[in-house]
Amino acid sequence: MDSKEQRTDFQRDYDRLIFSSAFRRLQNKTQVFPLPGSTFVHNRLTHSLEVSSVGRSLGKMAGQVIAARIQLSEAGLEFYLHDLPSVIAAACLAHDIGNPAFGHSGEDAISSYFRQHACQEIAGSPMSSRFSVAEWKELCDFEGNANAFRILTHHFSGKSSGGYRLTYATLAATMKYPCLQQAKNSQYRHTKKYGFFISELETMNVLAKKVHLTPDPQAENCWFRHPFVYLTEAADDICYRIIDLEDAHRLGIVGYAETESLLLQLLNSFSSSGKEELLKTKTTLKTICDANEKTAYLRAKVINRLIQACTDVFADQIDALLSGKFELALMDEVAHQHPVLGEIEALSVERIYSHDTVVHIELAGYHVISKLLDLFVPAVLTPKGSRSGQQQKAIRMLPLQYLPTGENDYENVRLVLDYISGMTDLYATEFYQNAFGFAIPKHR
What we know:
- It is built from 20 helices and two strands.
- It is mainly α.
- A hairpin with a 2-residue loop joins strand 1 and strand 2 (125-126).
């Protein structure tokens, strides 16, 4: 068989992502709980793989809905029945690829650094004065979603052009917030956060034209969502809402009895067929002795139900979704119908995301990221001939693809953020220890 016939372009997207170094680094980035530990819990990589698995199922089921509801050409029918699952699976692999080390505290640390150093004098002028108003606001509001789009599309020095060279369909399925930072508006779903940096505006304009995104008339450089992104978002929502609870049980933060009660209530909240399944589930649970296995079994049952529920919402709201104007996440609508999901979320906020182990890693990560920024940002903003010895050494520590490219302060700082946000928890910690004298670098 000719090699061109072995994989579709959308399957190639999946393969390029899963073999990429940025994706591999997710194995050592915090999802919720600290890494490593004696008890196995999810990291960004295992989370992304599971989200991709759920996304493939959602893509298949939603594709069947579209094929049945919309009059399509032969090629369109082929795509929705056979290729959409690969598109959503690939987009799900990429959905967290822009997140920095140490979970959301990494994002907060980057944003806070610039806010706190606005008046720091560099080469005779305050740091903030080196940027346009829009650039500075963006730097003070680091966004992992926008960082992911940059990783996927940016041409880094010494790397192949076009980033990962993904299909427009896959890129559209990753774009949860198709707007610049200046268009952010928490009143609307598609502008709750922002999805691309100023540096990728031209790339975003090309994507919008290729996939026919509808411009939002109320904001500049802003579009309504592509329908595929609702499926990517739903897969992520399903996994973190349920699997964070499973991890908390494994770590002893939530007891088995409470975990079982919540998950059985959720199963019981579905249709009459769900009640039949509930009886079978309870019978099966009696045959399993290990509490972790019981939780895993319940998790699988619940996720299966949530996939179907999200597909049902997709089918019910297909017109609004296809226009990009559905102003909820699919799982938000499911949660309205199944209130126990709200109870699980409340438990997560109160007892999981605020647990001491989570807070400790966030505080440590905040400090590490802040210190690394303080090492590199002033160095790249200081003119070459005026850099101190320490700043010259800091520049030499930057890999080739992240070296300053000229006199564009915004792009030079963006390259520093590319480097630091790409670090794993372990690498960032070791770099910090070596750079600031808390450990002596080992000979490699």
